[in-house]
Amino acid sequence: MSDQKTTKRKAPPAKHLVARIDNHMREMAAQTVVTSQIVAGHFKLHTTDLRVLDLIYMRGQALAGELAKATGLTSGSVTALSRAARVLKLI
């Protein structure tokens, strides 16, 4: 038998791993934005409308103030959006 050296793979430095993860996260975020735009467009909604509807579906129910805080909209905007969604039978 011949002596075979086993070579250990060196792990990339942490900064390279962080850079790779950061890059993948940015790609995923970009894909999410594009997907949201496509879905919203399909239903003739704005992406913000879709975001609010998504929050309502995830939480089951939510107050306008809670949705406003989560989206950065005013509670009045959320109330108007919710009324429109009800008229369209989206919620």
Describe the protein in words:
The structure is a single chain. This protein has 91 residues and is mainly alpha-helical. It has one domain. 69% of the residues lie in helices and 0% in strands. The mean pLDDT is 86.
What's this model, at a glance?
By secondary structure, the protein is mainly alpha-helical. The protein has one domain (14-87). Helix content is 69%, strand content 0%.
Topology:
Elements: H1 14-42, H2 47-59, H3 64-71, H4 75-87
Helix pairs in contact: 1-2, 3-4
Q: Report Rg.
A: 23 Å
Question: Would you tell me the overall average pLDDT?
Answer: 86
Share of β-strand residues:
under 5%
SSE ordering: HHHH
Number of strands: 0
Indicate the overall shape.
elongated
Discrete helix count: 4
How would you sum up the major sheet? none
Number of domains: 1
Structural class: mainly alpha
Keywords:
about 90 residues; mainly alpha; 4 helices; elongated
